[in-house]
């Protein structure tokens, strides 16, 4: 498969960065092709402009889609699957990735009228969450993230949808964290290998 990976983390020293590398290794070993949009690295402009807002909220229909937006849309159209990799920020993705959806999911591409987006074979979200799964479940936050990402943003734009949450990744207990993350890196590799 040809896989489009949208990666969003401000630091390359992060667990999320290492985890992406392992995932890509897995994809590579399984002979999948991939391309990566590293939103910080490419200095992606995540702020929707007034013109873009007016287009997306149907005030005006005469505003063209920006070139950097079309480029990301092209990457989707040329792929079979999409993967989002990011750390959880306030039960959401980092603002840059939220803004990516604001700008890339345009009308005529991702929603009415006449959406042209290709129905992808698979959409996978791989998240690093500081909180434990126990806490994310108790508060309903893990369900909320699934509803927003798989339900709202992907909806019927992919045939299969999945969210993997690597939980408890904060620095509270370094020894425990190290052991946990080593296991997660193996799982990230396997997710790529079995994609
Ligand atoms: C601004 C900010 C907001 C955060 N919000 C959450 C949150 O809502 N839920 C959560 O589980 N972790 C939250 N965290 C913790 C991060 O998810 C955690 O630091 C990250 O996943 C650790 O992985 P990394 O080493 O790759 O950054 C937040 C961190 C930051 C910096």
UniProtKB/TrEMBL annotation:
Family membership: Belongs to the NAD(P)H dehydrogenase (quinone) family.
Record-annotated membrane-spanning stretches: none
Domain spans labelled Flavodoxin-like fold: 1-142
Protein name: NAD(P)H-dependent oxidoreductase
PANTHER family associated with the record: NAD P H OXIDOREDUCTASE-RELATED, NAD(P)H DEHYDROGENASE [QUINONE] 1 ISOFORM 1
Organism: Clostridium boliviensis
Origin superkingdom: Bacteria
Keywords, ordered alphabetically: Oxidoreductase
Pfam families reported for this sequence: Flavodoxin_2
């Amino acid at each position: 498969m040809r896989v489009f990976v949208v990666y969003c983390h401000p630091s390359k020293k992060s667990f999320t960065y290492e985890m992406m590398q392992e995932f890509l290794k897995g994809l590579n070993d399984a002979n999948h092709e991939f391309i990566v949009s590293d939103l910080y690295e490419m200095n992606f402009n995540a702020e929707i402009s007034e013109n873009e807002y007016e287009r997306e909220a149907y005030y005006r229909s005469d505003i063209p889609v920006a070139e950097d937006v079309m480029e990301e849309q092209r990457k989707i159209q040329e792929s079979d699957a999409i993967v989002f990799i990011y750390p959880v920020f306030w039960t959401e993705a980092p603002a840059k990735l939220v803004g990516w959806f604001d700008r890339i999911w345009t009308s005529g591409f991702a929603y009415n009228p006449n959406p042209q987006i290709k129905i992808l074979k698979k959409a996978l979200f791989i998240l690093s969450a500081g909180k434990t799964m126990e806490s994310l479940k108790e508060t309903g936050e893990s369900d909320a993230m699934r509803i927003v990402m798989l339900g709202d943003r992907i909806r019927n734009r992919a045939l299969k949808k999945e969210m993997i949450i690597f939980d408890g990744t904060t620095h509270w207990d370094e020894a425990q964290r190290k052991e946990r993350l080593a296991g997660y890196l193996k799982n990230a590799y396997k997710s790529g290998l079995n994609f």
